Amino acid sequence: MGLFEELREKFNQAADYTVKVTTDVTNQAKIRVDLHTQNVLLTRCYENLGRACYDHIKNSAENEAVIADYVAEADRLEKELCALREKLAALMGNSICPVCGKDVDETFPFCPHCGAKMPEKPAEPEETEEAEDVEIEEEVEEDVTEDKADETDDKDDNGPIDN
What we know:
Elements: H1 3-59, H2 64-91, E1 94-96, E2 103-105, H3 129-157
Antiparallel strand pairs: 1-2
Helix pairs in contact: 1-2, 1-3
């Protein structure tokens, strides 16, 4: 394999890595927007539930069915929020504490917020994709540095240029 083929391969690997990172960042942003939207909907649901409860107590209104509907909707929205938080945490290399619900680096054996023991993750293969990406970046940097050194040596071998 020639130098240009190797360089092309390295550039393709670097481009693939860039696409992967960009995709991850985009997915994180989409999930954050969804989280915000769900939070707004949950807040509105709580406001409507509070209004319905107030009317029920103040005016002796018979609206238990309306209150039950708001409670069911709030439960559904909370489940969606929990699922979105877990998805975002996984994309960021974190996990959710089963006790306090906060983001925790998945390498931590205990939650730094509440001290609860974090569930153990299944063993991963020795070489992860991230480690491969770092190796690819290092190889590209080494190859470029070697190529520049070769070019400098070639210029030195030609001697001074007369005009």
